[in-house]
Design goal:
Oligomer: homotetramer
Largest sheet of chain A: 8 strands, parallel
Strand order of the largest sheet of chain A: 8-11-12-13-14-15-16-17
Number of helices of chain A: 12
Largest interface: A-B, 46 and 46 residues
Strand content of chain A: 15-25%
Helix content of chain A: 25-40%
Radius of gyration of chain A: 21 Å
Shape of chain A: globular
Low-confidence stretches of chain A: none
Distance between the termini of chain A: 39 Å
């Protein structure tokens, strides 16, 4: 087994920085040393990390590789997507296996295993999207929790006719989760009401991408979030995790529930922290389609200051995690399905590669601390989804998923810069970010160095997860 | 230098547990190992910690050794008090040096150094109580921050005529703290209004200890907390730390400020988490005097559920820290000064020895997690008061302040049980607690083992602190 | 035309009391006089009202005479129900005409006119329940507002498969109301989730009436109320009126919306202000069926203090109106349909006769003022539903709907006392109330005196209503 | 006695409009008639009010005629001030008698009676400012309530060294008010903290009038308001009335207390509803001095939208009353005392003449309804301060204080327009307002007609007031 010593760096953990050398032995971390204390250790390789940060590899808990959606497929495979993730310092993804309506849950899971198995550059796990809620699927929930390392299940209050679950289904799934300990993940938008607004907009001839944003008002995200929280309470207080929060109203609902001591959590995504409707969806012509995702990117001219509120929520831990909701579609042949009808544009943005970079910019900008960067992008994801301390921390015994980060360099994002996702455009074209990935280890193996992917297809292993370790 | 390997234990940090061996070399931690990886290391001693928790030593940020107050002195010296602290798994205290009105600040500090120097069993630092706020004392604040390792200053909205500062003084001190980065610590009770109620109660012949509680309504703690928060905002948003929070109303004010993203923090104490007015202050005769402290122990029959709210606040991090406000007085000759007039009872309770134990009981009771126990009792105290990672974490390079905790044993608290404080009674007489201190190291030296203090007077060293590392 | 002088009384209006004589001339009030100033006026009759209150006749805006529901019909006809109302000092009711699904709205309205026309003892108007929301029914809304004096429309978030509207329908109706000025009245309970709980309870063999209450948790009333408020906002801020509020959570949602300046209003009913689940639904055997209504009567052992909160809401005008939701069913042959299955018990309680009495008891108990009694039971109902100043105030030009109230007498409620509703039991059996109806005039005609109905069938006239006059 | 019939008008009361003729007989209203019903009544004069509003005379509960303040005296005498008030449709003022520190309360009251007696054009009453709180002044409170028709007492949390009361004094006065039923009126600004900011600004050479505004941040008004509410609660829940509210933070505190059912009330003034710091205090040179009053006129660039919030609070009844805080000073010799030092500028603005006009503009602008205009400017003032139904309502038996208002005309405000106050400038110069005073009656006597004062000095009579009639 290869032994590597990462030396001279500043290890960043969720409570702060320590000057530690990190000994990697095979796939795991063998030891941490005070400076100099690891001097005589025999190693195969030394990675010099002076004036660099040494952080636990990023964990992106919300990706959709190869997702069939909107009449096409998300354009990243597990291979291309995980390579891109690795380039950006992410060493674990949690993707969403899908049970289609009418399908046996385990079959849906098997299909996703088949897609990922042998293809991933980094470790991966699955949440399960439940297309049906009935006796069979509820039993399958128990089975997956107990036997398959799948401990989180996603439901949708949006997308009627596609993934949508009504309150009967939501309540029943939550009741089961209250019993088996699973986390319920919720896409919280009132899709029923949104569809009325969408149809009315189209009937008025409002077909451009920007109407995607205008027909999904933030109050309807707040409403659904509140409803999910109430139903989770009625169901016996199952852990509830609101995915891709974009709206101040939703944040208020989560913050209030948390203030009451509830196990209610939220994630947001870089697009909601940085982008505005005006500079994305509302671009002239069809270009805005690149940024069509749900919930939509919000406007600073709303009643609420969504972006400032999300940053604040992230600081104060009302938002626990930053994920990407990586769900890339090319403009050509994919996004273009919605020319003349924004409701036909496949919903999704690619971003798995850039999350660590974009959030590090938040550190540089003074929005969050270094420790909070690591906590929201790695440590809490691991704890939330039952992978700690295997993942999410630089500690002896943990998987040697390690990123060496160089704060003195810059990263140019976009297809004209750093870009390894299978997309014909970038949502972040032209962004120049302070800081840069230097070296990435996945389970003790260097997979990225000198901007180059040096790992191998299939190195990534499925992570069987336990129950949430983040309950209050 | 002595080398010790603590082996087989479960290390608890603020984000969870890891199975790590801990190598201590001299005064600091030299390395952490995955199980087995430290097998061949040469050590002088091995501490077997299987089935035990290995935690960073407790940090009690609120003690008053030898405090002159109420016409007498707190009954623990720095020697007796720090020995007691060590017995309970606390390896650092932050005590309050006092500038009396009219005194040069540095002289007050020197007096406290004189009391502590050469006497402490464990490490210690000082906050500074400012009895005056004027040009001289404000300059002294800068000096202490820059040169003396004193970065936190306490003011009182209670005790008119003693420690009380009016809003002019508070505002000016806060303005200076906004500039020099110090934390303002606040005893937040409206002492002006309380004194009216006290005088009226005494005039009605209500002289028993319970009237101490009844004349300090929780809304007046809430009011003062709100006022302190507002003044800190006006002053330029200096970090504000509310000490010994006891009341739901105060918690609400802090939670609201935090929800707005403010650097407002709070601590509570075990007495507010466990005890009730009825079973303490309201005991027949004068016995209630044992529990006379300010703010007072609250009643469950209040409009608010203070205890449940404080536990909830502690879980959700609206309360960041648990300290003791250790300020012991004996009944004989001390508390007895207030027979016939509760307002003459010296205010204070002893508890420095029992904080880690009492909070571990919160873990057993399901109120908080193991990780949260360590975070609130050690890691956050270190971060809040500028001592991380020297203190507050088990990490290579950190001071080897380590407690081995045995969760399978029990601790009998009280003068008839474990009790090393210089008091003729215990505030917790008869409490039997799950879990027990097994071994305590202070800077690499075993100071407690087999229930016995094996350290030495003067081992404890003054900790020069930096600025708050817990700002959002 | 008959001229009546009501002399010597204290006229109570929404802002207080005045000593005024009231001259009735024909159907309307002709003049108000300062004491003595009407001395010489020629009248046919003088009603001596010294030491009595003279108030505008009560307006009950929520009744269901002859409602087909739960496989039977509400047991009061417009004749029996309005006679009972008159006995209790109510001189106007607003009943709910029903459009069944698939029916033409105007046909539903015509059917209700046919039931009421020629049968009522007092004046009456209609709200319209919309069973369908589609282009036809939306056009009908406009028509009814413009031409039929129907300016308020009720939807149900409860009762799936019966009256239930989904969010599509609710949003579309609210959009139309935002345009035409109508008030949307909402039965706000999440009936979808409730039905899950009901089926689960029945499956567990929990069939007694008390399970009706336990399967309708108050948070699901709060959730639906919040959702209705959000949808009304998305729809363009149509006036929203929450009917029969029973829960603190719902009150909080309304209060918050009102604090934001929204045109959101609420009513509650005497059963929610006075009765508890334990002393009604939970009575042994099947007796609890008498009090099966939705939302259910709440328990004082809930997390919230619903009753105290509702009284407070009523005082502070977060609750604007008290109605009865009068929907009586006899035990025999009606309530008994649900023996062995609480979900089969027809939902509803009778109370149209007792509202003024029960709320006057609130005055005696110190819960509300005399002025607030009149305001919530008469003046605001008239303003809310477009009938002011024809109804709701003692003023020259207004309909002479006048109640002389004797505060020195008592009223014994129940089938063994005052009871004129067509029910074989009373929900208020045995209540003895301070105060008593002395004389009731409907449009200038005495209809109740000496506890006797002296009016005539068909005297009551349909009231064509205008738009809401209570908007902020 | 003169008999006048006001015919054809629309009478506006707090719950809406009625078409009524008003018969005045001597000093009071004798009767109200439905149109035509008063046709044959013998009268001395008929006032034609077709297409006009007939409203109860305005009541300004906050004026300071001849107030000694800031080294000078408010420039309106009771004579000039009440004539100006009458011109603007105000028929009652409540002025503040002052007990200076060290003075016997009754002597202070006598001094104000001496100033007003025989000089007023309209009726007047007094609140009492208490300069001392001690046993004597507390006894005097009881005496004034019981014997002198003075039932409201004002304290100041601002103006240290002048009117300032500390929390001891406030608490004791509130305790007494809880017993004797008086209303405590509070100037709620933390004057202690403000004085620090003022001194610091002056020391920096910031002497212009705008710094008056910048040194009185709105959070310090919010803080004091919260403190007053808490103290009133501790004191036994005396009625608390916050005067001249200007800040969103203060409104939030009042709204929250009201939401909890507390008897906490607030007034605001036209200057806070319409003016901005930028267009007043911040005018170049010394002109801003015209608008120096406390609290200061706020900026729209504050964190809060104070103006919008105040209008909303007024609509929703979190603000109950609009007064003027009329306290005029001339620029020459008075305001000019503060040239070079804004803290020397006498605090106050004149406005008693324009309140009804300015608030009617709020009706025209859609901010409030006609009914709410009358309620906030006349009815609630009468109820709040124990004068109903003598004042505040058009009802038989009430004082014939009546204003005929012409909505078809306009009013030009300013010394170049309508202006009768003894000031050498107007705070509202150039404002053109929709609507115009047509005729004003004071106790049955026409005092204003055709823009001319036709009353007489000394007509105004002292109003002995009862306790607050607005408690919940």
């Amino acid at each position: 087994m290869t032994r590597i010593l990462i030396t001279g760096g500043t290890v960043i953990g969720p409570s702060g920085a320590t000057a530690n050398d990190v000994l990697v032995d095979g796939e795991t971390i063998a030891a941490l040393y005070a400076p100099g204390q690891g001097a005589g250790v025999a190693v195969d390789r030394t990675i010099e990390a002076s004036r660099k940060y040494v952080i636990p590899g990023g964990i992106d808990v919300h990706t959709h590789m190869e997702l069939p959606f909107g009449g096409t497929f998300a354009s990243d495979t597990f291979e291309t997507g995980t390579v891109a993730a690795a380039h950006g310092g992410t060493t674990t993804i949690l993707d969403f296996a899908v049970q289609r309506s009418g399908e046996v849950v385990q079959d849906g899971l098997a299909a996703w295993h088949a897609k990922a198995d042998g293809n991933c550059a980094i470790d991966y796990g699955f949440h399960m999207i439940l297309g049906d809620i009935n006796e069979d699927s509820l039993k399958a929930m128990d089975y997956l929790v107990d036997n398959e390392g799948i401990t989180s299940f996603k439901l949708f209050m949006a997308y009627p006719g596609v993934f949508y679950s009504d309150d009967v289904q939501i309540l029943r799934a939550m009741q089961r989760a209250s019993d088996n300990g699973a986390v319920i993940m919720m896409h919280a938008e009132n899709g029923i009401a949104i569809d009325v607004l969408v149809q009315q907009a189209l009937a008025r001839g409002e077909t451009d991408p920007k109407y995607h944003g205008l027909t999904r008002p933030s109050v309807l995200e707040g409403e659904a979030t509140n409803r999910a929280i109430v139903l989770a309470g009625v169901a016996g207080n199952c852990p509830l995790y609101i995915v891709h929060m974009s709206a101040s109203e939703a944040l208020e609902a989560v913050a209030e529930a948390r203030h009451e001591g509830r196990n209610v959590f939220a994630e947001t995504c870089p697009q909601y922290l940085y982008l505005t409707l005006e500079e994305t969806l509302a671009k002239p012509g069809f270009e805005g389609a690149k940024w069509v995702c749900s919930p939509p990117i919000r406007s600073p001219h709303d009643e609420h200051h969504h972006q400032a509120d999300l940053w604040r929520g992230l600081r104060m831990n009302d938002i626990a995690i930053v994920s990407t909701d990586h769900c890339p579609f090319c403009m050509k042949d994919q996004k273009e399905l919605g020319i003349g009808d924004f409701s036909k544009i496949p919903n999704g943005m690619g971003g798995v590669e850039h999350r660590m970079e974009l959030l590090y910019q938040g550190v540089v900008n003074g929005e969050i601390s270094l420790a909070r960067w690591v906590e929201t992008c790695s440590t809490t994801p691991a704890r939330m989804f039952g992978m700690y301390p295997k993942k999410g921390i630089i500690a002896p015994g943990s998987d040697a998923d390690v990123v060496v980060w160089d704060p003195t360099k810059q990263t140019h994002i976009g297809i004209n810069g750093k870009h390894h996702m299978n997309m014909d455009h970038s949502s972040w074209e032209g962004y120049v970010i302070d800081g840069k990935v230097d070296t990435v280890l996945s389970r003790g193996t260097v997979v990225i160095e000198r901007d180059t992917y040096v790992g191998r297809k299939g190195w990534g292993r499925f992570v069987r997860r336990g129950l949430c370790q983040y309950l209050v």
